[in-house]
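Title: Comparing notes on inverse folding

I've been comparing how different people in this forum approach sequence design from structure. To keep things fair, I'm posting one structure and asking everyone to reply with a full sequence. Here's the target:
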């Protein structure tokens, strides 16, 4: 179920290019986050308590506000393949931060899996004629580091309420950061929106954000941080598949190899844990009884 989140995020590019008004990326980010957060907040009727006011604000900035803003800056200044490849270093960053902050072991297997995932994304999306831009690269690295830190801190601090409530706090906090940025960078809101525009915004807010982040933050509590971060590599796979199926873009043998490498990495990275669970059912039952 956690994988549903990155699978959904992979559709964002196709929906944005086909359904949303052009040249309004920060507006799209704000509309994704704030309405979804307010909707979940109204549904859960639960506000943060005590230290969770500043924790929710920080997590909302790292996971939503800063990440979305830096992501769109990178996408504007870099070819999509370069931005996605830089973003694919996130599992390695998560592995390092998790070893420092929450005690997850940094093993050679994790480093190999992260490197294989990065290579797969590079094969999938990186083009030979790609150009580099210093500001764009810095934004891509900043966005990747922001989400990696947010992911590990989300795991470290746990959830003082239901997943939906914690998700609503983060989306609302991140959305409140993005609204003034959208107004400052892109000017007044569009006066006319088509039915397709509204449908695109509704899909990104309800499915690509409210549902996806609720599943994502729930999964972070059930999975090791590194395993969750590896699932994020599914997003460029879906984005490429959508480009091929919906936008009629060409798919090269190298891209197909990259997709297979990513999927193989995800399967291989989870085999040891699955085998351990199968070989020690009594230990699993003991953990359940203790829980």
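Reply #1:
Here's my take.
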């Amino acid at each position: 179920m956690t994988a549903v989140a990155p699978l959904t995020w992979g559709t964002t590019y196709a929906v944005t290019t086909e359904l949303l008004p052009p040249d309004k990326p920060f507006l799209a980010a704000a509309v994704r986050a704030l309405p979804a957060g307010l909707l979940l907040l109204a549904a859960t009727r639960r506000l943060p308590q005590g230290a969770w006011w500043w924790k929710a604000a920080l997590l909302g900035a790292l996971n939503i506000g800063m990440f979305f803003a830096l992501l769109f800056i990178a996408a504007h200044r870099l070819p999509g393949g370069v931005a996605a490849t830089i973003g694919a270093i996130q599992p390695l960053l998560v592995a390092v931060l998790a070893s420092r902050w929450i005690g997850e072991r940094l093993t050679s297997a994790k480093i190999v899996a992260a490197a294989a995932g990065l290579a797969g994304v590079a094969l999938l999306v990186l083009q030979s004629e790609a150009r580099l831009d210093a500001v764009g690269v810095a934004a891509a690295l900043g966005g990747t580091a922001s989400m990696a830190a947010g992911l590990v801190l989300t795991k470290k601090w746990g959830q003082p309420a239901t997943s939906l409530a914690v998700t609503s706090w983060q989306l609302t906090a991140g959305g409140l950061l993005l609204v003034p940025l959208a107004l400052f960078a892109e000017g007044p809101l569009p006066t006319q929106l088509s039915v397709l525009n509204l449908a695109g915004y509704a899909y990104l807010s309800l499915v690509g954000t409210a549902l996806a982040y609720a599943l994502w933050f729930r999964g972070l509590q059930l999975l090791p941080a590194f395993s969750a971060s590896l699932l994020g590599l599914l997003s460029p796979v879906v984005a490429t598949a959508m480009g091929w199926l919906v936008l009629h873009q060409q798919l090269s043998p190298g891209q197909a190899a990259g997709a297979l490498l990513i999927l193989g990495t995800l399967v291989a990275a989870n085999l040891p844990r699955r085998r351990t669970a199968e070989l020690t059912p009594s230990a699993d039952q003991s953990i359940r009884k203790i829980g």
